[in-house]
Amino acid sequence: MILITGRSTKQGTGLNKGKDSRDYQEAVRTLEMNREDMARFGLRDGDLVKIKTLYGEATFTCRQEKLPKGMAFVAYGSLSSRLVGGETHASGMPDSKGFEVEVVHLPRGD
Amino acid sequence: MEIDNVVCAFCGCVCDDITVTVEEGRISEVKNACTLGRAWFLGHSSNAHRPSGTVNGRPVSTEEAVEEAARILAQARYPLIFGLTSTYCEAQKEAIALAEVLGACIDCCTSVCHGPSGIALQGVGEPTCTLGEVKNRADLIIYWGSNPAESHPRHLTRYAVTPKGLFTPRGRKDRRVVLVDVRPTPSARAADIFLQVKPGKDFECLWALRALIKGIDLEEDAVADTGVTLAQLKDLADRMQSCRFGMLCVGQGLTQSRGKQMNTTAVFLLVRELNGFTKFAAMPMRGHGNVTGIDNVLAWQTGYPFGVNFSRGYPRFNPGEFTAVDVLTRQEADAALIIASDPVANLPRPASGRLSQIPTVALETRESETTKIAKVVITTAPAGISAEGTVYRMDNVPLRLRKVLPSPFPSDEEVLSRLLERVKELKHA
Amino acid sequence: MLKIVQGEVYDPINGIDGEKRDICIEGGKIVAEVEGAPTIDASGMVVMPGGVDIHSHIAGSKVNTGRKMRPEDHRGDVVPRTNVTRSGVGYTVPSTFTTGYRYAALGYTTVMEAAVPPLTAKHAHEELNDIPLLDKASFPLMGNNYFVLKYIATGEFQKVKAFVAWLLQATKGYAIKIVNPGGVDTWKWGKNIESLDEKANTFDVTPRQILTTLARVQEDLGLPHPIHVHCNNLGVPGNYETTLKTMEAVEGRRIHITHAQFNSYGGESWARFRSKAPEIATYVNDHPNVTIDVGQVIFGEATTMTADGPWQYRLHQLTGHKWVNSDVEMETGAGIVPYRFSKRNSVNAIQWAIGLELLLLIEDPWRVFLTTDHPNGGPFYFYPQIIKLLMSQDARLEMLESVHKWARTRTSLKELGREYSLYEIAIITRAGTAKALGLKEKGHLGVGADADIAIYPKLDDPEAMFSRPRYVIKGGEVIVEDGKVVKDGLGKTFFVEPAYDEAIEGEIREDFEKYYTVTFENYPVQLEHYLPRHEVIPCG
């Protein structure tokens, strides 16, 4: 799966309430995927899913959204930043969008 | 009490027509702001319960915190000053003076947002304009890798899509809006045309558009795997050449994905070449608050807009060498001063992790991921709410933030100025 | 308190031509006498008022974009910090601290920022506040302003006048700046204007109408400096005719033509490019209402930056160099293109000669001033080089031999034997410019003047002499010794406050709110925040 990180309204308003606020936390913990991909991984709305890269891992809650196949989206923040590496290819800018991730479905009840 | 013409510095739109109602020491109502701006104004309570400072988690006075911060920075060999987004220019100047005295690296959020746009400007230049030109003249707006509905809501309603201008009296009806992105965002609803490009394929599409503009015949396989068809690109090229005034708004989708400054270079070249046919401009959708301000102040005081180093006593610039993510990931920084920014939340873990290993000083208005790990925290008054000063809009128009609420805490400018003085004393001792 | 003794004084405003005189300073001003003051022994040295640069691009949005755009410009010219001075970078678009220090190190103490878009005036002032030591002022751009054009179109002169006065106050500006009148407005749709009688785009007004109206406004308001004009057709072969017509258009009212070299071209094409400096000089000689500054070319790197968007685009097309354009809503525009003037380039050689021709052919040094339109013609660091070329025909002939031959065959430079005296140099670099600007306390060393003084070693080589003053004094304090800055500080910003009928604010408000993207209340520059040290220069 390719992960896109970006802004969202809820993340934007949430961060004004504080990073510990429910709005912000919900925004940055929600991983959006389309229906087919969720089915492929055996995921249902609200399930927990672990996303892994070479640099780290983080647990998100799934939500079904209209997205292209093979792409997931999360509002950027303290969880998504665990997944991004520090290599900037001499640009100063890390690979923050469109990188490959591994999806691990966490069994329900965990 | 109602205060008019208040300036919002949450996003790069820097709307200055906000009306704020202040009652009993808090902001009780906000008019004209978008949902993000509203949250920004309303979300700023007085924070009076926060300690003036902490050292190793222990509450201290501002003076004690400044003293410890000065000690940490003065003895560092390769300190990093980072952030400076959510603060105003007069404070940014103090930070730069401090970086010079320390021989530090000073970098701002630009390096992880629109640094690639700045690099493209250095490579090929940039045809651009102020937002009023868009309002008054643009009949074709393209958002590429940008989701303004969620990042800059009033960009659509105050500047680019719906407002009625001098030569656009019918507002939305006088314009065509194109959105190019990897996924259908809420912004797609505002667009007439949505082109879904595959991740990492923006450069190929932009380059193909350059070819089409120049009248070069392309085969379908030139755009294979981009998610966009040749017919769609030909249609877009046609619209671009035949519009009266086109605007290409560049978002993080281009700066943060594969290609980075190559993507933005492709945009600026395309827009430059379109000026051979019609009037066209590009605009980086600068994000948070006063990130444009720090670019500007750094550029006029040091010659360079971000990623500046003073180790040799004069400014040097080199993305990848002096930019924050690199300096932290390579574990070069041995102390850090973070101002009005939350890198522990937002920078990649290999970089932000370093901030926990070295003594970090944070100037902040509220609790953040960075304040949680900082050795020294100094609480300051929020810019635009309790501290006034200059801010720059995404199109480089300067405005002045107002102070609408008192605060028990000093401004970033005052703290940085005291820190500078103290560091100078320690360095001379 | 300070006393300068035994120096050879050049103070043209007071008619002093090389006399040995003492200069007494107290309270930051020149006074008749002073007791017990420390002395500077200026034996063997030349004492002049501090330099006054009438046109330079040092502060504001387009200057800063020029900096951002050209990291390669900065790398080879680094300026480390000292105990006294901030660090920075130099070359064609220096950082702000370096700008102030380098001007001071040449003996300049007052500099005019030549072109500021009103919408971004706060930015210009922020940068001016970071330019140390110098006194300064800024010229807001008006020749393509929506409201100026609108009220010219409706024939409402009083409203143009009230608006201009209002705008000067809102921007804390000093003079009416006009760039490619009508053309920059037309460029907003990608087109340009090529003659004084073509109509601009937004309102059907011509450059001629813009020039005549604003010249009349300047006179009526009693502004200290005339309209400061960058003519239409800058840079274009054959443009000298436009320049002549521009000077004629104001029908005897005062006009200042800036960087006139770029507007003194003959020939219908680059292949036939030639100098028309003699024609321009003849007109200036015959018309005492005209002053000019030359915009001398310096061989080497330059960064062209003007509000003349169409011209800058054209230069990009000619050179292929990177190009910035920035149109400013309702007001003006800007364009930036790096450029290099080369001795072997036939056109550049003629351009170089033209600046010198103008300085040598215009007889009255009180009406022709030395500038390079920094950084368009080249950096201001080279003013001493130009001074040498003006003072020595030999130096000119030597340089003529080293440049493309068209400078010898298509200009009159090689025939010109005139050599400037120190007195005349003092006029074109300080006395004359101060007078043209209406800065009564600058540019001279009489009692009551600001104590801004440059003391140069008297050397045979004028370039060496003017490159390294022995002392520079600003407001009575020594700021430079032997070419090095020894004291930091902040100068004053001058502006004018012409009276106006406040009804104009109500008049413009409707269109302002419809077409601008900032509120009317947030538009003006707030004095208390942006001009920490300032002085109002009276009108009338």
How does this model look, in words?
The complex is a heterotrimer of chains A (110), B (429) and C (540). Chain A is 22% helix and 32% strand. Chain A has 110 residues and is of the alpha/beta class. Chain A has a seven-stranded mixed β-sheet with strand order 6-1-5-2-4-3-7. In chain A, a hairpin with a 2-residue loop joins strand 3 and strand 4. In chain A, helix 1 packs antiparallel against helix 2. Chain A starts with a strand and ends in a 5-residue tail after the last strand. Chain B has 429 residues and is α/β, with parallel strands linked by helices. Chain B folds into two domains: 251 residues, Rossmann fold (3-Layer(aba) Sandwich), CATH 3.40.50; 170 residues, Dimethylsulfoxide Reductase, domain 2 (3-Layer(aba) Sandwich). In chain B, 38% of the residues lie in helices and 21% in strands. In chain B, the strands form four sheets. Chain B has a nine-stranded mixed β-sheet, with helices on both faces. A five-stranded parallel β-sheet of chain B has the order 11-10-9-12-13. A three-stranded antiparallel β-sheet of chain B has the order 1-2-3. In chain B, a hairpin with a 2-residue loop joins strand 2 and strand 3. Chain B is globular and about 70 Å long. The mean pLDDT of chain B is 96. Chain C has 19 helices and 26 strands. In chain C, strand 7 and strand 8 form a beta hairpin. The longest helix of chain C has 16 residues. Chain C is globular and about 65 Å long. The chains are: A alpha/beta (110), B alpha/beta (429), C alpha/beta (540). Chains B and C meet through helix 3, helix 4, strand 8, helix 5 and helix 12 of B and helix 1, helix 2, strand 7, strand 8 and helix 4 of C. Strand 8 of chain B pairs parallel with strand 18 of chain C, so a sheet runs across the interface.
Task: Set out the fold topology.
The complex is a heterotrimer of chains A (110), B (429) and C (540).
Chain A: E1 2-6, H1 9-17, H2 22-29, E2 30-33, H3 35-41, E3 48-53, E4 56-64, E5 71-75, E6 99-100, E7 102-105
Parallel strand pairs in A: 1-5, 2-4
Antiparallel strand pairs in A: 1-6, 2-5, 3-4, 3-7
Chain B: E1 2-6, E2 18-23, E3 26-31, H1 35-43, E4 53-55, E5 58-60, H2 62-75, E6 79-83, H3 89-102, E7 105-108, H4 115-124, E8 125-129, H5 131-137, E9 140-144, H6 148-151, H7 153-160, E10 176-181, E11 193-196, H8 202-213, H9 230-242, E12 245-250, H10 252-255, H11 261-274, E13 279-284, H12 291-302, E14 308-309, E15 316-317, H13 324-329, E16 335-339, H14 343-346, H15 349-357, E17 360-364, H16 369-373, E18 376-379, E19 389-392, E20 398-401, H17 412-428
Parallel strand pairs in B: 6-7, 6-16, 9-10, 9-12, 10-11, 12-13, 16-17, 17-18
Antiparallel strand pairs in B: 1-2, 2-3, 4-5, 4-18, 7-14, 14-15, 19-20
Helix pairs in contact in B: 2-17, 3-12, 3-17, 4-11, 8-9, 8-11
Chain C: E1 2-11, E2 16-26, E3 29-31, E4 39-41, E5 45-49, E6 51-56, H1 61-69, H2 71-75, E7 78-79, E8 88-89, H3 96-105, E9 108-116, H4 121-129, E10 135-140, H5 146-153, H6 157-171, E11 177-179, H7 183-186, H8 207-221, E12 227-230, H9 240-249, E13 255-257, E14 265-266, E15 274-275, H10 277-286, E16 290-293, E17 300-306, H11 309-319, E18 323-327, E19 335-341, H12 346-361, E20 368-369, H13 383-391, H14 393-402, H15 406-409, H16 422-437, E21 453-457, H17 462-467, E22 471-474, E23 477-481, E24 484-485, E25 493-496, H18 503-515, H19 527-530, E26 534-537
Parallel strand pairs in C: 1-4, 1-5, 6-9, 9-10, 11-12, 12-13, 13-16, 16-20, 25-26
Antiparallel strand pairs in C: 1-2, 2-3, 5-21, 7-8, 14-15, 17-19, 18-19, 21-22, 22-23, 23-24
Helix pairs in contact in C: 5-6, 6-8, 9-10, 10-12, 13-14
